[in-house]
Amino acid sequence: MLHTLMKSPFETNVPLIINMLKKSDDFLALQDGVLIGLKNNIFLKSIIMSSVKLHLIKEDVYARGIEKNISSKFILISYIHFVSLTLKHKKQMTW
């Protein structure tokens, strides 16, 4: 399943998202959701321990000027790669 986080993690039930993640899932954050990739945020350790592939839309990261503060556990991808993830996963959940 592809889980997409579009809202700030501080406005979302991140513990619920983390509990629903399975190892075969991909997690993608875009828009304000990219804040979950910030180093030293309160959700980072939990999402990393979920063992899913973690992605951030790089255009949204750069638009917010936070590229130097992103955890190395996240892969920065383009919107084109986002389309590839949607094709890979028949089931998707938007948060």
TrEMBL record:
Alphabetized Pfam families for the sequence: DsrH
Any GO BP: tRNA wobble position uridine thiolation
GO molecular function: transferase activity
Family from the record: Belongs to the DsrH/TusB family.
Role, per record: Part of a sulfur-relay system required for 2-thiolation of 5-methylaminomethyl-2-thiouridine (mnm(5)s(2)U) at tRNA wobble positions.
Xref: HAMAP family: Thiourid_synth_B
PANTHER family per the UniProt record, alphabetical: PROTEIN TUSB
Binding partners and assembly: Heterohexamer, formed by a dimer of trimers. The hexameric TusBCD complex contains 2 copies each of TusB, TusC and TusD. The TusBCD complex interacts with TusE.
Name the record gives this protein: Protein TusB
Gene: tusB
